[in-house]
Automatic annotation (TrEMBL), chain A:
<feature type="domain" description="ABC transporter">
    <location>
        <begin position="2"/>
        <end position="208"/>
    </location>
</feature>
<dbReference type="Pfam" id="PF00005">
    <property type="entry name" value="ABC_tran"/>
</dbReference>
<dbReference type="GO" id="GO:0005886">
    <property type="term" value="C:plasma membrane"/>
</dbReference>
<dbReference type="GO" id="GO:0016887">
    <property type="term" value="F:ATP hydrolysis activity"/>
</dbReference>
<dbReference type="InterPro" id="IPR003439">
    <property type="entry name" value="ABC_transporter-like_ATP-bd"/>
</dbReference>
<dbReference type="InterPro" id="IPR027417">
    <property type="entry name" value="P-loop_NTPase"/>
</dbReference>
<dbReference type="GO" id="GO:0022857">
    <property type="term" value="F:transmembrane transporter activity"/>
</dbReference>
<dbReference type="InterPro" id="IPR015854">
    <property type="entry name" value="ABC_transpr_LolD-like"/>
</dbReference>
<dbReference type="GO" id="GO:0005524">
    <property type="term" value="F:ATP binding"/>
</dbReference>
<keyword id="KW-0547">Nucleotide-binding</keyword>
<protein>
    <submittedName>
        <fullName>ATP-binding cassette domain-containing protein</fullName>
    </submittedName>
</protein>
<dbReference type="InterPro" id="IPR003593">
    <property type="entry name" value="AAA+_ATPase"/>
</dbReference>
<keyword id="KW-0067">ATP-binding</keyword>
Length: 209, 407
């Protein structure tokens, strides 16, 4: 499903990132480890279609990601890739429901049942809440719900547990794994959080040359 | 969910900011609306009022005052002219018709004008009830007078001396209402019309009861040779274009009277007002520019806070174009609402102005007629919205997602 080959990227020529090839089938997951500055997030941005690499191939399904240009790439990303960040970054002027609707509208994907996702994440009762009324854990779950609402083929999580306490961190990881399994999606988590390590068997490390 | 709703949500997320910007722009636009309405209606009203009057002849003084007092009934008359001189002028071969008017009294602030039936014909006035006056002390009321003072056929009242209210009453003889005019939208609405004789009799020291029962002259000037009988003005129509050149010069240089051309004086008036209008217009434009700047600053500053939001929208599938549109739309929605508020406010201001000035120059201007020029207000407003949001929208367009999200 997801295949990368010889992806190269550098901010300056002396410090090129080593990015191992990745081949994942539907439903598989991967933990990417590395120290800060090792290029984990850069790798994730490349996978998410946010940052064009200097070379190499990246294929998701039958699509060469970086052959798409402009709005095409944006729509493809919106429909097929769900991204979760260290901070929830939910749009504060909108309610929980509207955040999810926006993800649906902007990507042009067909609307799926958002109540099911919300109830799976145990935030159905927050559906019409304002963002300012959510706790940190709830906010992170909303951002997960938003990443999943279009049933993406690929779920990318960048330090999803970094700002959460142990209980919430544990819960978020479980939820991510469970949802990825349910949607039969690829889950890639990037972290340096040791609490996450034990939950994934498939691991890899990135670093610099 | 769509881009319009998204922009709207961001606007109402900062209600104070948004309201302030709307009010600021609406204020500027409302002034423009008032100017549009006033210019449109005031000028056409003034020009219409002077139709059919080529020249006004009265006592010497300010020509503008003469025109304002005798054509529009807003200023004080310059004085009186002897009937004898006036009659001499009506016999001039350059004069096609002349309508005499005697002023000086009022009832509850509404001017009593002594004239003949030609004056009514000049404005194509029609009666809504009753008939025209035929005897002294019979009066015909303008529609507005009848309505405001609650007078009907057969009502009697005494005039007071002076053009405005609150001076001594002529209580010797009451006027009787014999007719009420249809609403015409011109000066007649606010006048009490009667014969010249009525005005003379009410000012005479001794009462000639025989003459007071006789019919009055309904066209032309009354034939009286009494010394000291005066009228206030004559409204003259030229016989030919030649008269426009010769008659005013003749009157001004050879007689003790003064001739003033309404068309010329109106132009002068509009020119004088023009300075004020330009000033107010400039002020309004300054307010609009400041409002535009304020909207720009608000959007520009919010871009800094929203960079992350915009980057997140991109990860959710928004294209650069959509974000650009999202920000421009925010500016345009804001200014569109401002235009709606501004136009309403403008009409409301005119309403207040008119109601404060019921018998003045702008009486009869209707506050709630909408004119085509007002569409420009929306055009201006939307223009301001687009201009103010272009740079912020460009910033949104350029937002680099990867760098923004890694920050």
């Amino acid at each position: 499903m997801l295949h990368t080959k010889n992806i190269r990227f550098h901010y300056d020529t002396k410090n090129a990132f080593i990015i191992p090839d990745v081949n994942l089938a539907r439903g598989e997951n991967l933990l990417v480890l590395g120290h800060s500055g090792s290029g984990k997030t850069t790798f994730l941005n490349i996978l998410g279609g946010l940052l064009e690499p200097h070379g190499g191939d990246l294929r998701l399904g039958n699509t060469e990601l970086y052959k798409l240009k402009g709005a095409e790439l944006d729509k493809f990303r919106g429909k097929n890739i769900g991204m979760i960040f260290q901070k929830p970054h939910i749009l504060a002027p909108l309610t929980v429901k509207e955040n999810l609707q926006l993800a649906n509208y902007l990507s042009g994907a067909k609307p799926y049942d958002m109540d099911e996702i919300l109830s799976d994440l145990n935030i159905l009762d927050k559906k019409n809440s304002k963002i300012s009324q959510l706790s940190e854990g709830e906010a992170q779950r909303v951002s997960i719900a938003r990443a999943l609402v279009n049933h993406p083929k690929l779920i990318l999580a960048d330090e999803p547990t970094a700002s959460l306490d142990d209980a919430n961190a544990e819960r978020v990881i479980q939820l991510l794994k469970k949802q990825a399994e349910k949607l039969n999606s690829i889950l890639i988590v990037v972290t340096h959080d040791q609490r996450v390590k034990n939950h994934f068997t498939n691991q890899m490390t990135v670093g610099k040359q | 969910m769509n881009i319009f709703k998204l922009s709207w949500k961001y606007l109402i997320f900062k209600p104070l900011n948004t309201t302030l910007n709307i009010l600021l722009l609406a204020l500027g636009l409302s002034v423009i609306t008032v100017l549009f309405l006033m210019q449109n209606q005031f000028e056409s009203k003034m020009t219409r009022g002077a139709e059919g009057v080529d020249l006004v002849v009265g006592a010497k003084g300010s020509p503008l005052q003469l025109v304002l007092s005798s054509v529009y009934h807003i200023d004080f008359p310059t004085g009186n002219i002897p009937l004898k001189d006036a009659r001499g002028l009506t016999r001039n071969r350059l004069v096609k018709s002349a309508i005499p008017m005697g002023m000086g009294d009022n009832y509850q602030g509404f001017r009593i004008v002594g004239t003949n039936h030609d004056y009514l014909e000049l404005y194509n006035a029609g009666l809504s009830e009753g008939e025209y006056w035929t005897k002294p002390f019979e009066v015909v009321l303008g529609a507005e007078v009848a309505k405001k003072l609650n007078l009907s056929l057969g009502s009697e009242f005494a005039g007071s001396h002076g053009i405005a209210t609150a001076s001594h009453d002529h209580d010797e003889h009451d006027y009787v209402v014999v007719g009420i005019l249809k609403e015409s939208g011109n000066v007649l609405d606010n006048l009490v019309l009667t014969s010249l004789e009525s005005v003379w009799f009410s000012h005479a020291e001794e009462h000639d009861h025989v003459a007071m029962g006789a019919p009055v002259v309904t066209s032309g000037l009354p034939e009286t040779d009494e010394e000291g009988v005066e009228i206030t003005t004559l409204l003259i129509q030229y016989r030919n274009p030649m008269a426009a050149v010769q008659l005013p010069r003749f009157i001004n240089s050879r007689t003790s009277m003064q001739a003033a051309s309404p068309a010329f004086e109106l132009n002068r008036l509009f020119e004088l007002l023009g300075v004020g209008v330009t000033l107010v217009q400039g002020l309004a434009i300054a307010i609009i520019i400041i409002a535009g700047l304020s909207i720009f600053i608000a959007l520009y500053n919010s871009m800094k806070e929203r960079k992350y939001d915009l980057a997140v929208m991109r990860t959710l599938g928004a294209s650069r174009g959509q974000l650009f549109f999202h920000i421009v739309l925010e500016g345009v929605i804001l200014t569109f609402i401002s235009a709606c508020v501004g136009v309403l406010l403008g009409h409301f201001f005119v309403q207040i102005l008119v109601s404060l000035n019921e018998q003045g120059a702008i009486a009869g201007i209707s506050a709630w007629t909408f004119i085509e020029e007002e569409l420009y207000i929306w055009a201006y407003a939307i223009g301001v919205g687009i201009v103010a949001s272009l740079i912020p929208a460009w910033n949104a367009y350029r937002t680099d997602i990867a760098t923004q999200l890694t920050k």
